[in-house]
Design goal:
This protein is α/β, with parallel strands linked by helices. It is 42% helix and 16% strand. The strands form five sheets. The chain has a seven-stranded parallel sheet with strand order 3-2-1-4-5-7-12, sandwiched between helices. It has a two-stranded parallel ribbon with strand order 6-15.
Amino acid sequence: MSETTDQLSPLRVLVTGASGLLGGAVAQLLSEKGHHVRTFQRSASSHAGDEVRGSLTDPAAVAQAVESMDAVIHLAAKVSFTGHWQEFVDTNITGTNNLLQASQKAGIKDFVFVSSPSVAHFGDSLAGATAGTANPDLAHGNYARSKAAAELNALALDSVDFRVAAIRPHVVWGPGDTQLVERVIERAKGGRLPLLDHGAALIDTTYIDNAAAAIVRGLERMDHAHGRALVVTNGEPRPVGELIAGICLAGGAPAPKLNVPGWLARGAGTIIEKLWLAAGSRNLVHDEPPMTRFLAEQLSTAHWFDQRETHEVLDWKPAVSIDEGLAKLTAHYAQS
């Protein structure tokens, strides 16, 4: 498959959430391809140039962000393993609706909604699964529930004049990642990183460069992708314990040896999350509890996906393997 087909003439593209790892990578790649990129987020991003600061919950700021744009790639979201439901509603549902409405009013033609496979993961193992349909009633955790509702709202607006595609990158990681990599290394160094069920569950993950490339391909292939939800992964299922050990090695941390039964972690996660929210507890670094039920499920159940539809629709395949990604991660920490 070629990544040189379906290249677009230069567009004016709004990227939300460019202060994050994936949003920043998407903005950078679009710029390298010759597009004019405007970023929209609450804090400064690493992308130099056209920038609008503001919140998705502010319709006036959103209207300013979409003005004169041709397309939108929407990555901004509240991403957390825990938190109060209304916080997720405000950003992930209401904020997305604000952006969708403003985009339509501004005459934007293409809208890429960056979602998550968790919107259609209901706690059971997924082995060679297709994307499935988002379901906010069955998805586990407030993040997944809110993203499921937002994805359904976005895809419901898909039409010839306003094309919408949902791209679901799965477990994105790479140098500079604070959501997964730094948490794994920090907890491993502190002896607070157990394996669940010996780390045997097979999971798919996505190296950052591949995730960014697939999202941009979603825009380039909108003729084929609109109206669809596509899961993106490296397509290399690995035991979760093996991947964690690789990340630990790259960051100079010992691989975890403590094993906890998955059923026990899931039950404990439910209790810990409730106590954490009730007490208003704060992790000093990341503001996350040590375990939640959703996290325990992700670490103890298989979740890997059939990538044939994604490769066909996007006319794309990942360029960086898991092993190459781990080598890049090792080099990153060697230089830091």
